[in-house]
Amino acid sequence: MTHKHALMLTLAALILGSQPVWAHETTSKTAQAGALNPGARAAASIVNAFHAALASGDVPAALGHLSEDATIFESGGVERGKAEYAAHHAPADAAFARAVPSRTTRRSGNLSGDTAWILTEGRTTGTYNGKAVDRVTTETMLLRRTGGVWRIVHIHWSSAAARRAA
What we know:
By secondary structure, the chain is an alpha+beta fold. It has helices spanning 3-17, 29-34, 41-55, 59-63, 82-87, 90-99, and strands at 66-74, 77-80, 102-112, 115-128, 131-146, 149-161. InterPro entries: DUF4440 (IPR027843), NTF2-like_dom_sf (IPR032710).
């Protein structure tokens, strides 16, 4: 078993055994981070900075928050490493994030040693390439602290069409 697989299995066990603390619908980044385990706030700030960089179209800044060996799961696909993500989906992710606003509806997070996980639910609504977008989103980010610096080592994004109110 590789180090990465052992880390992911350990994190899965920790996440399943942890008591999540949820922030309810809010627009304040401070309020969202306030619902996190206090030790996970620094890691959550990296997640926020990653998203802010994508939303501003600054792909190099977003990539700066990823570890070299980051693994990104998105739409059933996988990108293995920061370089692969940079060469494939990062520019499109930035274009989409810049065009279509997203808001966090719930967030939790915790950490164990130098590993943190931030779990986010959200809603993305707007228009992209002339088409209406209304998606409910989920995101899991795993981060590792090395030399006092948090880097994203894994992202798992998922979304579904928002259900219309009856």
